[in-house]
Amino acid sequence: AVIMSMVFRKTLFKKENTPFVMELPPYRMPTIKSTVTHMWDKSRQYLQKMGGIILIASIVIWFLGYFPNNKEKEVVFDNQIEQTSTMFAQNKITEQQKDSIVTGVEIMRTTAHQENSYIGQIGKFIEPVMRPLGFDWKITVSLISGMAAKEIVISTMGVLYPGDPMQQETLQTRLKNETHSDGSPIFITPVVIGFLLFSLIYFPCIATIVAIKEESGSWKWGLFTIVYTTLLAWILAFMAYQIGMML
């Protein structure tokens, strides 16, 4: 932040700003009534945000991840499960083997469905840009959804990383167990650090961009903020991942 402030001060903001003077009111000890009132207002605003933007965004992410349905592929997976049940009924496999096979088929069904869904197609399209950061298409989609509000990144990951529905695993466990096609874990330390840096720095949120536009009186600075923060986030996440992999 200090480095970028110095760069902007010498390039974009060369003019001296007019000093801003504001008279502050005298400080007084807050009363219990005013404290409780402010606590209630802020809590209500947060709950409204949670129940509004984040809920709607989660529904949109779910819709994009659920459709379109490929009935032909669904029939293939159903047939595999039916064959497994038949083999168990004929005592060709044990119940433990049956449950293991069915679980594997369901995971393959979920993976194939996600990759062919609308949100999977979006993520696959953008994935080449994010691959140098160690991000797969699911992480990419989660970050895209965070443009509405950063909190939505987590709820999106909860949708995209369902894990084993029979185990009722936490999101933390599901992320730790997520692997690439070759079996290597996705969320290794360099990826996690890069992901945290990218989430911290990139596109603040739509509400912030609108506020910048209102304060500056032009969309120019709002668009500049989008490009600048996202590019800076990509560079720092790239450095974190590449340096981490070398170490």
Q: Would you give an account of this structure?
A:
It is a single chain. The protein is mainly alpha-helical and 247 residues long. 71% of the residues lie in helices and 0% in strands. The model has no long low-confidence stretch (mean pLDDT 86).
Determine the mean pLDDT: 86
Query: Regions with pLDDT < 50 over 5+ consecutive residues?
Result: none
Number of helices: 11
The helicity comes to over 70%
- What radius of gyration results from the CA coordinates? 24 Å
Give the strand tally: 0
Please trace the helix and strand order, writing H or E for each element: HHHHHHHHHHH
Ends apart, CA distance between termini: 25 Å
Quick tags:
247 residues; mainly alpha; 11 helices
Précis, in short:
The chain has about 250 residues and is an all-alpha fold.
Topology overview:
Layout lengths: L1 H10 L20 H35 L4 H19 L5 H22 L1 H13 L6 H9 L6 H9 L10 H7 L11 H13 L4 H11 L2 H28 L1
Helix pairs in contact: 2-7, 3-4, 5-6, 6-7, 9-11, 10-11
